[in-house]
Write a structure and sequence with these properties.
CATH topology of the largest domain: Alpha-Beta Plaits
Strand order of the largest sheet: 8-7-9-10-11
Number of strands: 11
Order of helices and strands: EEEEHHHHEEEHHEHEHEE
Helix content: 25-40%
Structural class: alpha/beta
Radius of gyration: 21 Å
Largest sheet: 5 strands, mixed
Strand content: 15-25%
Number of helices: 8
Length: 288
Amino acid sequence: MEKRKIIKIDQDKCNGCGLCIPNCPEGALQVIDGKARLISDLFCDGLGACIGHCPEGAITIEQREAGEYEETKVMENIVKQGKNVIKAHLLHLKEHNQEEYFKQAINFLNQKKIAVPQFESMHHEHSHAPTDLKDVSGASGCPGLKVMDYRGAKKPIKQDKPVSGGVSELRQWPVQIKLVPVFAPYLKDADLLIAADCVPFAHADFHQELLKDKILLVGCPKLDDIQLHQDKITQILKHNNIKSITCVHMEVPCCFGLVNMTKQAILASGKDIPMEEITISIKGERLK
């Protein structure tokens, strides 16, 4: 059997920051149970695009036997990592239209008398595309890059008037993390809202429910320089009396990097600042 290169994640070194997720073009990585996991080596090309983005040096390349793909061997490794990794792997196969491998995985679970996750609940828990959305991309990779068309989806019942009353709750400018001055006067005694920049577009009542009485810092953990943002927020926390932080992000994997960035900034600041995390679905719902 031929050998090929595959990434290897040292679980002892991994801190679950998620910075490797948006840098895996194949979408083979997910953060599960607080650790980065290779949920399927089916799509790992072994080029290591994720390696340089791991701050802990937890990702390396190993060369091992990996000739013709065999779902049974993959499942032998998957089941050792627990039910959440099993769920993620099955969904990964589904999202990449690997129906034959999916069937083989289910057969393996049945033969080993391991409970097969309910696909609908698994979809809700791990997928980042609501069940009534139509994927029109036909592409694999990061779930956050999937093109979806839900113009024909059932719309929620309209309220008589917007909860916000059409009033903006924005109380400062600028809002981009890299543009906000460290010593801006509005940062004094502030409650910060650190938001992924897709959130206000997805969450209909962003202003009234999330932004009211807070100072807004906006950034994208996938497209921006995340280390630059972390350094800026660290300085903001060090030099201002910040009362609280709310970190709100989308449900796609790459967006979770915003949470770790914020936690690392709080730690580096040396201050004890309470933080709340809020996740918004692609359809704009606030997830519990």
